[in-house]
């Protein structure tokens, strides 16, 4: 499958190479991470919708019946968590039309609490200019910066002239692996709790002895 490539996408892959057996070539629908996005926990800020409606399966990527439109102004934040560890390779966007197209998109890897108050102080992991068009634009990501991602936050800072920004489709291409670190976290938490208990008991006895 070929995708519409915007002029400022900075593609590292070759558009003429459609050999999907190699993960360094351009990616197709079999690499779509839709089924690995935790859609129930996708959230959007300053929009008329909630967020998950623009996380669509591949065959609905051109559908314009559902979209997100900014509310109070032309800025939008979308947080997208994954069900495992992801190596991202491309961002897919269908936006607009015309001057409702965002001027830029900034991506933040593993930043789960960004809001409009602090996002301006954070350097994005990567950002792109967004070109107008009715097709899906593909933006090649630096995989070295998106190699172990549990969530990605998209920030659209402004429209291209309209009072509001509109997003029809957000897709992500890459490779998913099951998260392996849950048992390790459980072990560390257990050890930390056990270590805390003797300190608490010791402190109690130190203070209770003079009072008796």
From TrEMBL:
It comes from the Eukaryota. Residues 1-31 are annotated as: Disordered. It holds the Pfam family PITH. GO terms for cellular component: cytoplasm; nucleus. Residues 22-192 form the PITH domain. InterPro entries: Galactose-bd-like_sf, PITH1-like, PITH_dom, PITH_dom_sf. Residues 11-25 have a biased composition (Basic and acidic residues). PANTHER family: AD039 HT014 THIOREDOXIN FAMILY TRP26, PITH DOMAIN-CONTAINING PROTEIN 1. Belongs to the PITHD1 family. This is PITH domain-containing protein P35G2.02. It comes from Hypsizygus marmoreus (White beech mushroom).
């Amino acid at each position: 499958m070929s995708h519409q490539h915007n002029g400022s996408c900075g593609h590292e892959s070759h558009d003429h190479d459609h050999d999907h057996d190699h993960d360094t070539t351009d990616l197709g629908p079999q690499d779509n991470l839709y089924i690995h996005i935790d859609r129930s926990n996708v959230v959007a800020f300053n929009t008329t919708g909630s967020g998950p409606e623009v996380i669509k399966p591949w065959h609905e990527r051109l559908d314009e019946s559902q979209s997100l439109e900014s509310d109070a102004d032309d800025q939008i934040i979308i947080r997208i968590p994954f069900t495992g560890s992801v190596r991202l390779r491309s961002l897919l966007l269908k936006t607009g039309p015309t001057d409702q197209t965002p001027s830029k998109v900034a991506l933040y890897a593993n930043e789960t609490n960004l809001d409009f108050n602090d996002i301006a102080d954070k350097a994005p992991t990567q950002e792109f200019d967004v070109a107008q068009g009715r097709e899906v634009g593909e933006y090649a990501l630096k995989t070295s910066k998106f190699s172990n991602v549990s969530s990605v936050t998209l920030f659209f800072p402004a429209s291209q002239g309209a009072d509001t920004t509109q997003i029809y489709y957000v897709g992500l291409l890459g490779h998913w692996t099951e998260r392996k670190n849950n048992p390790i976290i459980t072990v560390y938490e257990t050890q930390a709790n056990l270590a805390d208990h003797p300190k608490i008991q010791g402190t109690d006895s130190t203070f209770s002895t003079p009072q008796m």
